[in-house]
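Weekly sync, protein design subgroup
Attendees: M.S., D.O., the rotation student, P.L. (late)

Item 1: inverse folding check
M.S. brought a backbone from last month's batch and wanted to see whether the design step gives back something sensible before we order anything. D.O. pointed out we never logged the input encoding, so this time it goes straight into the notes. Structure tokens as presented (303 positions):
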């Protein structure tokens, strides 16, 4: 049966966008709403299944998907394999942050971003519901909590910035999530986050069947385009800007086209060179045929 859109509620113009759901069941699909443009999982995991998934399975699930591009086998290896993400994200963050500010990361995992921000003089705090790396993050001298209720009991000064990376697509009610965390922000605070962009070139341009089977994940409730994410944030009356970004390189895309699997990041970097790879990424961003959306939300609401 055709479902009702989980965002706008209409049952018209619903089409299957992702037939096969990685880690999911045969009856689960990702549907695209022709009315609001959002892409959503139906049927989603129920709340008890979701709780168990993040409590017991998430790190293992991600390790199976990483294909060598990210190492989830232990916290030290996870931190090391994510240093390229630190390098990619930091120039964006430093446009909005400065030393001494109070920063919260939701979904901080091994704390690799918090450690980098701490080195730049920020006061950092982490929140991560899966709990797999909590003891490791604590060992680095970073306060971390597994539940929002724990954090709110001890948090004092409001946060100057709240960041989260590849979290919002996991959230059952994304608009409520954003507004809830904005209540923890200082009056001039900023929220910066990233989500996968549903106009990823491997989906929309190259149409690699193996990537299609891999991309649509049961861990996600939603996939956003620039337009549909704007609708979610507009509905909450938020003041925001959206920017395109491209995480993965030519080598990764060629590996998917040749071998039908992840793990190709940097495989032919010596051949393509830094200039060509940068030009490729910039062109994808210009066309919004990219893999990532960056959102910047100010703590002020539209009139």
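Designed sequence read out in the meeting:
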């Amino acid at each position: 049966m055709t479902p009702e859109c989980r965002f706008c509620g209409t049952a018209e113009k619903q089409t299957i966008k992702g037939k096969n759901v990685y880690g999911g069941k045969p009856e689960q699909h990702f549907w695209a709403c022709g009315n609001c443009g959002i892409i959503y999982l139906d049927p989603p995991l129920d709340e008890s299944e979701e709780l168990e998934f993040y409590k017991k399975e998430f790190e293992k699930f991600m390790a199976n998907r990483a294909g060598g591009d990210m190492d989830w086998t232990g916290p030290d290896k996870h931190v090391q394999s994510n240093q390229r993400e630190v390098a990619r994200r930091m120039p964006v963050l430093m446009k909005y942050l400065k030393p001494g500010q109070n920063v919260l990361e939701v979904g901080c995992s091994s704390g690799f971003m918090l450690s980098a921000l701490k080195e730049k003089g920020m006061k950092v705090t982490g929140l991560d519901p899966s709990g797999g790396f909590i003891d490791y993050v604590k060992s680095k001298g970073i306060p971390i909590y597994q539940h929002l209720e724990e954090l709110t009991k001890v948090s004092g000064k409001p946060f100057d910035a709240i960041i989260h990376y590849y979290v919002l697509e996991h959230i059952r009610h994304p608009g409520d999530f954003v507004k809830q965390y904005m209540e923890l922000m200082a009056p001039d605070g900023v929220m910066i986050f990233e989500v996968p962009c549903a106009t990823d070139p491997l989906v929309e341009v190259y149409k690699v069947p193996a990537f299609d089977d891999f991309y649509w994940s049961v861990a996600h409730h939603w996939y956003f385009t620039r337009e549909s994410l704007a609708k979610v944030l507009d509905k909450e009356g938020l003041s925001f800007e959206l920017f395109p970004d491209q995480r993965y390189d030519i080598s990764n895309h060629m590996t998917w086209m040749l071998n039908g699997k992840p793990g190709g990041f940097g495989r032919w970097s010596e051949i393509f060179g830094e200039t060509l790879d940068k030009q490729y990424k910039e062109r994808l961003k210009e066309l919004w045929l990219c893999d990532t959306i960056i959102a910047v939300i100010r703590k002020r609401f539209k009139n």
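Discussion: The CA atoms of residues 168 and 174 lie 6 Å apart. The mean pLDDT is 93.
Action: P.L. to compare against the previous round before Friday.
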